[in-house]
Specification:
The chain is mostly helical and 373 residues long. The protein is built from 13 helices and no strands.
Length: 373
């Protein structure tokens, strides 16, 4: 008993020192976080805008080819940056490629469904519905990794669902109203335009659902790989192999299902905008490198709280950029949906941070109690 009383103050003092050191480190990280946070936000906004610009062509239907060009640019960029000595990643190895190929194939489905949903939906709607992926991942962690969902996390999930329902309701109503305003007085023409608009929205929500499912599956498979330490890939290794291995898959699907006739190529890349489109595609590929680098930069120089909060706060400027550059309707309903989704992201970031602090305290107390016994 006396021995326990002697060690207890030491353990408490040690725990307080660890918590104080962690707090000081977090404060230092936050103060130095401005450059990486700004770069991350700019890169993600620019990539979303450029992708929306490219796929929003009146008759654009070569999504696989578009994504293959982006992957090629991405591989060229990371290889060039590696030669400059700014980053480092492992050289290509056939064994690693075979092990990573299923992950890369799954990523192809993620980026393809994301591009298709962005083609039919506005940027604010796309941004709000991406939040639903978080819910799927969280319940995947519960099923496969014995994860926990706290009350605050559940509140954030309810807010995410509410923002998605509100966004869909506003989206359908605004689409019907705009179609009715633009149609002729003929009832038949108006009904045809409305039905065509709703059909496109249904396509968009279908692709959005698939994107949420594939994104969650991709994240869960990555978590499984990290948990069992199959590859030991760094972020840059993952980016290099993902893009390199996706190129033949994307080109193969493009050859099989997309029309490579001269008429369709001219329709997708008209002469008057061809150079702009190709530049935009190259820029989006480079922006993907920027997002990966700035993400790694944020993780390295900021606290986990800061980084998770950046991910939540970044949805607001991304949604606003769609309203600014693509003329998405700015109504009370749309701004309310964005606001609720924004609050949901912030609440989720706070909930995850609180949960991580509890886990760290439990991990710190466990060795102490073991030592006392």
């Amino acid at each position: 008993m006396a021995n326990t009383k002697e060690t207890l103050p030491e353990d408490v003092a040690e725990l307080r020192r660890n918590m104080a050191t962690s707090t000081q480190k977090d404060n230092s990280d936050v103060s130095s976080a401005i450059p990486p946070v700004v770069c991350y936000c700019i890169a993600s906004i620019m990539m979303t805008l450029v992708n929306k610009f490219v796929v929003s062509g009146r008759q654009f239907n070569m999504t696989f080819f578009l994504l293959s060009l982006q992957s090629i640019v991405c591989v060229v960029c990371v290889s060039a940056v590696k030669k400059l000595g700014i980053i480092s990643f492992r050289d290509f190895d056939t064994k690693d490629a075979k092990m990573w190929f299923p992950i890369s194939a799954l990523l192809v489905s993620v980026i393809y469904t994301g591009s298709k949903s962005l083609q039919y939906l506005s940027i604010p709607i796309y941004t709000i519905f991406k939040n639903l992926t978080i819910i799927l991942i969280a319940y995947g962690e519960v099923i496969w990794f014995n994860g926990q969902i706290t009350r605050l996390t559940m509140v954030s999930f309810l807010l995410m669902v509410l923002s998605s329902i509100l966004a869909a309701w506003v989206d359908v109503n605004s689409a019907v109203e705009s179609t009715g305003d633009a149609s002729t007085p003929l009832v038949g023409v108006s009904v045809a335009l409305v039905s065509d608009t709703l059909r496109k929205l249904n396509f968009g929500y279908f692709w959005m659902l698939l994107n949420c499912l594939t994104s969650a599956a991709y994240a869960i498979v990555l978590l499984m790989r990290k948990r069992i330490k199959v590859t030991g890939f760094s972020d840059w290794d993952s980016m290099f192999y993902n893009n390199l291995l996706s190129i033949p898959v994307l080109l193969l699907f493009s050859m099989l299902v997309e029309d490579w006739g001269s008429e369709n190529l001219i329709r997708n890349f008209p002469a008057e905008t061809r150079n702009v489109l190709l530049f935009a595609i190259a820029f989006s590929g480079a922006a993907a490198v920027g997002i990966s680098y700035s993400t790694a930069w944020c993780v390295r120089t900021t606290s986990s709280t800061t980084y998770s909060m950046v991910g939540a706060l970044n949805k607001l400027p991304v949604a606003a950029s769609g309203m600014l550059f693509f003329g998405d309707p700015v109504t009370f309903g749309s701004t309310s949906a964005i606001g609720v989704g924004f609050v949901a992201g912030v609440v989720y970031a706070i909930a995850k941070n609180n949960q991580k602090k509890v886990e760290m305290r439990e991990a710190a107390v466990l060795p102490m109690s073991t030592r006392k016994s």
